[in-house]
Amino acid sequence: MRGKHVAIAVLPACLLSACNRHQSTLAPFGADAADIRHLFIIMLVGAVIIAGAVALLMRHAVRAPEGAISHQKGMRIVLWLGGIIPTVVLMGLLAYSLPYMRPRPVAPADLQIAVDGEQFWWRVTYRPAGATSVDSANEIRIPTGRTVAFRLSAGDVVHSFWIPGLAGKMDMIPGRTNDLIVRADKPGRYRGQCAEFCGLSHALMAFDVIAMPPAAFDAWLAGQRRPAQARDGEGARLFAANGCNGCHAIAGVTAPTRIGPDLTHFGSRRTLAAGILPMTQAHVAAFIRHPEKTKPGVRMPSFPQLSDDQALALARYLQGLK
Amino acid sequence: MSLHAQDDPALRAAQEDRLREVWKPPSGLFLRWTDTNNNRVGVWYTLTAFGFMLFAGVLALIMRTQLAVPDNDLVSANTFNQLFTLHGSVMMFLFAVPMFEAVSIILLPQLLGARDLPFPRLSAFGYWSFLIGGVFVAGSIFFNAAPDGGWFMYPPLTTRTDLSGLGADIWMLGLSFIEVSSVAAAVELIVGVLKCRPPGMRLNLMPLYAWYILVVAVMILFAFPPLIAGDLLFEMERLLNWPFFDAARGGDPLLWQHLFWIFGHPEVYIVFLPSIALFAMMIPTFAQRHLLGYPWIVLAAVGTAFLSFGLWVHHMFATGLPKISLAFFSAASEAVAIPTGVQIFAFIATLWAGKVKWSTPLLYASGSLAVFVIGGLTGVMVAIAPFDWQAHDTYFVVAHLHYVLIGGTLLPLFGGLYYYWPLITGKKLSDRLGRIAFWIMFVGINLTFFPMHLSGLEGMPRRVFTYPAELNIGWLNLASTAGSYLFATGVLVLVVDLALSPTRAKSPRNPWNAGTLEWLALPDDEDWGIRSVPLIESRYPIWDQKDFVAKVDEGRFFLPDAEEGRRETIVTSVLDAKPVSVIRLGGPSVKPMITAVALGSVFILTTYHLYLLAALGGVATLACVLWWLWDTAEIPEKPEKPIGHGMHLSLYRSGPAAPGWWAMFITMMADATAYSGLVFGYYFYWTVHPDFGEGFTGPGIAAPMIALAPSLASWALTLIAREVHARGHVMLARLLLIGGAAMAVVGLFAGLRCLDGLDPQVNVYPAIIWVLVIWTVAHAAVAVVMQLYTLARSLAGKMDPTHDADLRNITVYMHFFALTAIVTYMTIGWFPETGL
């Protein structure tokens, strides 16, 4: 029964202190994750009571002298403890949990965000009602206090969209579109991650989630709708000369393309390579030259022919795209 | 017979000599491996499965070492993905299921007082297939070619040949081969339980282990074939580019998930129930009383099996299925906890009512119960869909499933090992080492897996080769890693205990004072299984029946002799175990081994795209099977023989009274289930995708009906052949068989005509039609072989109107063939989306 002592000691400690605050189901910032945590705590308390009771009963049964209970009494124990009580408890739990299964109501005016899983990054398209859509990648911003509808699909293989602090996960399946309706309550910076095994770099497919007060969000989205503020120079020349624009779109600069992540406002993102590296010039330059060193199996070709200076120039150029 | 003939010691000694001679194992460097006796094959099987368990455990240790600290780079992502794929696949397919079959092959004849299983050579075939397939799959990691798509192998990651290599083919084909051997063992075990019980052992007197074997084997029969159907579609997509799971060409990745989990969830109970069965044997022994609530336990086992087929969607709660179906599957998943509760509390109540003899096996049983209860409670949590949306595919589920599988499979097996070791070797294991091993393992298990609940809730997904330090779960993972090494140390102590066994002295017979039949085994085991087949009047005959052991030993029950020098066992009726006949069993033979090699070559050569050689392997397999069958169902030298007590039993039965007929029937149930997996595929596309078949012209109605008519004619002619043959018209029956074969050939070619103009690579609609038709015409081809084989048997004098087992058995096949043809041709003819 040692396991249960560990359980009793460790769990509350972590529930109180939450090991991390930005990718944890126990530190919710959204309404659904908070509901599910509530459900979990109730089930946890029940489970601890049941496990303890069974252990005590087992101990008692093994130590009881021969004939401690008659055959009839034994059968009554089986009937009540094995049959009737579990049935009642489970039916109660099911009834209690049913309301949590209902989807959150969504209105046509609510913001839609389409997210496609790709090996190993996220294509993000904001579709505000009655306005033009905005392309982005590897970072998701949502307003607090408003219902948001994620429309989830996948380009290549099955992925799963999971922001533990916001809501449960939803699979992204080629050929299908799944909806996940959420509402964030607490502003802040959080993290999501792919939860369905999707290949070599499955572990390295994450993204930043930024929940913003509604007004700040609206202003930000309006800013995103503007084309890139690109500077000319060595970086811009290298971008075109190396064919980067064949896969990566920079609105207002390159022709549209959907092969790789959209880079229009690349410089304003906090992380690089789908939530894996901090957005520093050195990391960007190193990633451009050898992306497979950071992400095994990545689709982006490597550019070892670029010199250090050239890679840094490209990085400077990209980070200037705010 | 008042003064019993068996009173004469000289007669008994002579009988024992004859029995010993008949059951003598083959010797010699090679020939000893041609043995088919369940004692030998079962032990090989068990040791091999145990070896695979240790192998998969080492893979897990490497993974845990990689995950000990954040951002570790001990192994590459590529290696890590192979490690976890192989760890899960080996534990499930090469350890848990085969281990159940291995232990059952050892125990079942003993439990039933039978001399051996009804088809000893089939067990041997299953073992050799398992060994070949297992080494092929597990060994791939040494060539960096192991499967790396997870044990669930979700397409399109695994079907796209640009995203996954040879490993995916090795998984599909290697494990399909093993699934075939699992189904073979299931057939063997079901027939064994139903037809080879001792006289008087009505169904409700069966030892509970036999009930569980029956339930689990039936589950294997219905759970594995959908996976085999899935494997077939999967390899068609990988090797031939038929787009079953490719959304761009009308396919659907979710179909695989359904087929996989229709197998995958019953699989959990397939590996869990046998361990409960071990409890059901151990608990009465250590409580020294009958188990409480026998009928309830049987009902609970059957109920669990039934429910387990209705739960698969709880593995797919996050795939975006309609919420109403989620609520239904949540409820069904909760419901399965109830029969489990009944079984557990029946054991606790038995211990409570009895006088508990504390012992090492019981220590394992109680420890596994504690571990299992924790896993069961987290199981109730993840069955609630909203919580599962968070927990699914995280380390919380890793913790849950390991608590369930360790508490519900591994520890009970170790307990069973300590309990049954004296039965198999005649020696007890060390109580002291057993306890030390237990406590090290128990602490190790909890230290490994308990923290994983929290890692998962803190956002750690499954199947990640590393995790960032910022998640702050490094300390939880370090604890898990330390625990895993502790766990491994415990297993090592247990292995040392086993290794020391040969140095120990023999223990007395029935050392735990158990009440069930298997404990009749002598410490110096005789290969004949049981001295005489007893008449059973109680569930615990050793406890309850007067002078039972002495009567068995002195040959005072049935079949105490082997006068004709043949291996024999008694066949009884299915429900009330009335003696029906004596069957002659196959003895040592190279045929099972050679057939396994031939069949294995088909799967392995296909993996490497050596299609021509694989086809040759297929022809060789067919030849081996016919060669093997040729001396079965022999006409005995006399119609019946005495088995003692003035009873005479027939030496030949055909139809439902014969084990062979049941084997055919049960095999065809598995075949039909696999086929229905394919039909499910057709209607899945048909109902889920409104554009199914759009823009394609199907085969129309006429062509399928033209193929159906001769197929049904072939069936009808065979049926008529059976009837006229039984009435003595042998020549007419032969002509009808020739006609039936001819009609099957016509049906075959007419079936292929349905495929004219359909290109299976273009879209899923033509592809699924191709698969259904190919399945059907392949069955027509097998029908031709069977009809001609039966004809040859008749011509060779191996079949006559009173000895017509072959004809009756192929009629069973033809019933299923007719059903297959009807469903295929009606489906493709009458249910196209276009063309009506």
UniProtKB/TrEMBL annotation, chain A:
GO terms for molecular function: copper ion binding; cytochrome-c oxidase activity; heme binding; oxidoreductase activity. GO terms for cellular component: membrane. Its main location: membrane. Coiled coil: none annotated. Residues 108-223 form the Cytochrome oxidase subunit II copper A binding domain. One of its GO terms (biological process) is ATP synthesis coupled electron transport. Residues 230-322 form the Cytochrome c domain. The keyword Oxidoreductase does not apply. It catalyses: 4 Fe(II)-[cytochrome c] + O2 + 8 H(+)(in) = 4 Fe(III)-[cytochrome c] + 2 H2O + 4 H(+)(out). Belongs to the cytochrome c oxidase subunit 2 family. This is Cytochrome aa3 subunit 2. It comes from Sphingomonas pseudosanguinis.
From TrEMBL, chain B:
GO terms for molecular function: cytochrome-c oxidase activity; heme binding; metal ion binding. Pathway: Energy metabolism; oxidative phosphorylation. It comes from the Bacteria. Keywords: Cell membrane, Copper, Electron transport, Heme, Iron, Membrane, Metal-binding, Respiratory chain, Translocase, Transmembrane, Transmembrane helix, Transport. PROSITE patterns: COX1 (PS50855), COX1_CUB (PS00077). InterPro entries: Cyt_c_oxase-like_su1_dom, Cyt_c_oxase-like_su1_sf, Cyt_C_Oxase_1, Cyt_c_Oxase_su1_BS, Cyt_c_oxidase_su1_bac, Cyt_c_oxidase_su3-like_sf, Cyt_c_oxidase_su3_a-hlx. The keyword RNA-binding does not apply. Residues 17-519 form the Cytochrome oxidase subunit I profile domain. It catalyses: 4 Fe(II)-[cytochrome c] + O2 + 8 H(+)(in) = 4 Fe(III)-[cytochrome c] + 2 H2O + 4 H(+)(out). One of its GO terms (cellular component) is plasma membrane. One of its GO terms (biological process) is electron transport coupled proton transport. Belongs to the heme-copper respiratory oxidase family. PANTHER family: CYTOCHROME BO(3) UBIQUINOL OXIDASE SUBUNIT 1, CYTOCHROME C OXIDASE SUBUNIT 1. NCBIfam families: CtaD_CoxA. This is cytochrome-c oxidase.
